[in-house]
Amino acid sequence: MTEKENHGTNAILKIEGVSAGFGKREILSDVSLSVMPARIMAITGKSGSGKSTLLGILSGLLEPQSGRVLYNDDDILKWFDFKRSRFRNRHIGFIFQFFNLLPDMTAYQNILYPSALNVFSKDRRGDAEYLIRQMGLETIRNQYPSTLSGGELQRVAIARAIINKPKIVLADEPTGNLDEATANGIIDLFFEIKERYGISFVIVTHDHRIVERADVHYHLEDGRLSLISGKGSAGLRRFAQSGITTAAPKTKVAKKTAAKKTPAKKASPKKNSARKKIRK
User: Fold this and answer.
1) Any alpha helices (H) in 107-266, and if so which ranges?
2) What is the pLDDT of residues 57-86, one digit of tens each?
3) Partners of 219 in the beta sheet?
4) pTM recorded for the entire structure
């Protein structure tokens, strides 16, 4: 990480001194974070540590008790709801663990939906066609979510997240509901999108594969956000010390094992009758 990144210079979006809680429980305590252009940032932490709350504050969906959320040095917390909604639609994409596609729309319609919400948006049908080709969705474009596999659902969700060409995509456990092979493909896709479009990703995750490939890794614990510098082993050692498993999510596959044949022992005449009864 460069000195500029560490101090938030040229950041697209940043939060400063943010604290948040529910009732007497403190979730975030004096948290600061800068999202740089064309970076993939992993945020780890135990369940309930406030990772999803942090994403909500970054997007302007949630308001902290204190602190600022700055987009191009303008505090979005001071904006009216309409302006914040327009900001999210234009500049922020969302990817969820459980996809959150609209069930009564086809894959193609789901991808286009965010652009339809923006009355000032140009016609994005050409962009949707391009994303469908790039992500291999041609054969399922007219199918409904209930007919799609987990990997297909997540690829549609990713296309939907970037249809308006946002600056940042916020992803909440995007591989948490996928099998290992599908998850690997989705992670590769994130990095392809970063390189092709210059989009930054802030990914809340328990997946060590995202952590070891991310440009920046933060860990959230006891309301505090700690920077873990560097990729690979250094980050993973700290990740492991946090008490979160670094094992990749695996799907259990039932295996049929052939019964081993053991040489039959010679039975005494007294036991033969008992064996015949069991066989019957």
Assistant:
1) 107-117, 125-134, 150-162, 180-197, 208-213, 233-241
2) 999 999 999 999 999 889 999 999 999 999
3) 44, 226
4) 0.79
